[in-house]
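B., you asked whether I could sanity-check this one before it goes into the benchmark set. Here's the sequence:
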Amino acid sequence: MTEPPYFHIGVVVPDLEEAMTQFSLHYGIAFPEPAAIHIPDPSGSAAGHEIRVVYSKEGPPFYELIEATVAGVFPAVAQGEVHHVGVWEEDMAKRVLELKAKGIGIEASGIGLEGRTGLVEGAAPHWVITEPGPTGLRFEYVDAGMRVGIEAWRELGRFPG
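And here's what the prediction gave me:
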């Protein structure tokens, strides 16, 4: 069996713990402990915001539940929607250049699981989320080098960062 073209589906939810309970009850899906991740401001300023997120243990594809925020890339108006699909990317620098060449904007990016810094000129991010396409769907490109850490989080039940 080959790997699917995406490894996770990102869904924005109003309350992370309640969504985890409901997904477990209705779909038999288990989740590890959620993690808090800092999303930097795309302008590179010191500002940004924190999100709470969790990946399902079962998959692929995995469910990524993201608690809605007041502002930023995961707003409350997106609750219950499939916000993005996540794909592994072997060459992030090349992917970012391809997105820019096609005129596809980047809504959020970061380096590391903690998202500690935004898209820095000359440095390839570890993950980027595109702006919405014609159907409203976004793509999250995740550096394949992050796979070990993300899998450890799901399997061990605790965010390794």
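One thing to flag: The chain has a mean pLDDT of 83. Otherwise nothing jumped out at me.
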